[in-house]
Design brief:
The chain has 263 residues and is α+β, with helices and mostly antiparallel strands. It has a domain of 135 residues: FAS1 domain. 43% of the residues lie in helices and 16% in strands. The radius of gyration is 46 Å and the shape is elongated.
Length: 263
């Protein structure tokens, strides 16, 4: 009987120990509620595409003059850093080669290196703007990459957007590239700020028109307003003139011969 009682006590003791161990190691409802829920991690947003401005301008249009200027002055490095190393992006206005050739040669050659850099920086906004953005920014001075003294105004007339500087107001003739973070727009004139040019820059003189060389058979009208003479009538007049000269020479010789006989 004692053995059975001891066995029963041992079983009760072992059961008590097991319950205590489970109670101390199992999480409570509060602990379960407080535990963070595991959710699938979100994929990182794709990085904006890298745009090589030199490659873009060399193949996108007739922009070699502008590309040469920003490369020689190293302004392209500022544009490239703004486009790909900032969140604001870049908006670039690129004049065509013909826009530069329309200026007098001394217009840009007389600028100092700092003035030339400012002029090139004047052709960019330190922020990405799409064409639709421009529609909401009309008649609002916008600071360019060149600084606070160099602002541009935009106007929108039935879809035709013009960029107004002090001495020129070119239109945006085409959208060359417009994907964040870079927008490139083509202009038909160079932007000319008054901060650099105190007076209107000279325009290159147009070449003189070639003279109108008429065919040899076409004769100019006479001063009296009569119709031009035909080639046949001119030939006839020339022949008659030659005959008259021949007769006159004959008479002169005859008179000279008679005079000699008299002597």
């Amino acid at each position: 009987m004692k053995m059975e009682t001891m066995s029963l006590k041992m079983m009760i003791f072992a059961a008590t120990i097991t319950i205590l161990i489970l109670a101390t190691t199992s999480p409570t409802n509060a602990q379960i509620a407080a535990a963070p829920s595991l959710s699938p991690s979100l994929a990182p947003a794709p990085a904006p595409p890298f745009v090589n401005l030199a490659n873009l301008l060399s193949v996108a249009g007739p922009f070699q003059t502008f590309l040469n200027y920003i490369t020689q002055t190293k302004v392209i490095q500022s544009f490239q850093n703004q486009a790909n190393d900032t969140k604001q992006g870049l908006t670039l206005f690129v004049p065509k080669d013909s826009a530069f050739s329309s200026l007098n040669q001394s217009t840009l050659s007389n600028l100092t290196s700092d003035q030339l850099k400012s002029l090139l920086l004047f052709h960019a906004f330190p922020k990405y703007y799409s064409l639709s953005d421009f529609k909401s920014l009309t008649d609002t001075p916008l600071n360019t990459f060149a600084g606070g003294l160099y602002t541009l105004n935009l106007t929108d007339a039935t879809g035709l957007i013009r960029v107004h500087s002090d001495w020129s107001s070119p239109k945006i003739s085409s959208s060359v590239y417009s994907t964040y973070p870079v927008a490139v727009y083509e202009l038909d004139q160079v932007l000319l700020p008054q901060s650099i040019f105190s007076t209107t820059p000279l325009v290159a003189l147009a070449p003189a028109p070639a003279p109108d060389i008429s065919p040899a058979s076409d004769l100019a009208p006479s001063l009296s307003g009569s119709s031009p003479k035909s080639a046949e009538s001119v030939n006839n007049e020339s022949s008659a003139y030659a005959v008259c000269i021949g007769v006159l020479n004959y008479l002169v010789l005859a008179v000279s011969g008679g005079f000699m006989l008299m002597l």
